[in-house]
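Q: what does this look like with pyroglutamic acid bound?
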Amino acid sequence: MQTVLLTGFEPFDQERVNPSWEAVRQLEGVKLGDDVQIVARRLPCAFSTAGEVLSQLIAELRPAMVIATGLGPGRSDLSIERVAININDARIPDNLGEQPIDTPVVAGGPAAYFSTLPIKAVVKALSEAGIAASVSQTAGTFVCNQVFYRLQHVLAGNGVRSGFIHVPYLPEQVAASGQACMPLVTLVEGLKVAVKAAWCTQVDVVQTGGQVS
Ligand code: PCA
């Protein structure tokens, strides 16, 4: 049996839940075919531990594909991240109180890594399923970008595809602020569609996912 590792994050910044983990946990054990199934795991929201936990999971589970997910506060759709950059610049402290500013994720590492998922095919599959999605050109500079960079760094050149998806708030998190959100049932379905499309697509489709600025 092959494994697709799907991760979500613990809550951060005084939130009581993190929609990424609430959705990912519901996909534990879901089969994508006869011989491949999803394994769901939660990552800590801390610069000093998240990447280590992820590396250990990869060493232990030997996954055939890895997709990490996190909350993108204010995002209005499933944001399929294109690129991870080699910088930490935290606007808020993480869950261990650390707030690195302008430090590299990996000293001496490349400036950036691209997602090795077929990001356009994932957006296309989600759009066809009626679920809002787009290519995102930045995963930010907080713990999600750090984990995304570490993920791509660990798997670079070994043929295991990997990438990152940011998800919106849940409706109950934004009842007072009116920010963008997506119901949990849609998040779960959307991540399932995204993982399936990523797993089944060998050559990405050609369609624009760009932005003018
Ligand atoms: N979102 C944060 C970190 C954890 C999460 O779910 C981010 O976008 O960096």
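The chain has one domain: 2-200. The mean pLDDT is 97.
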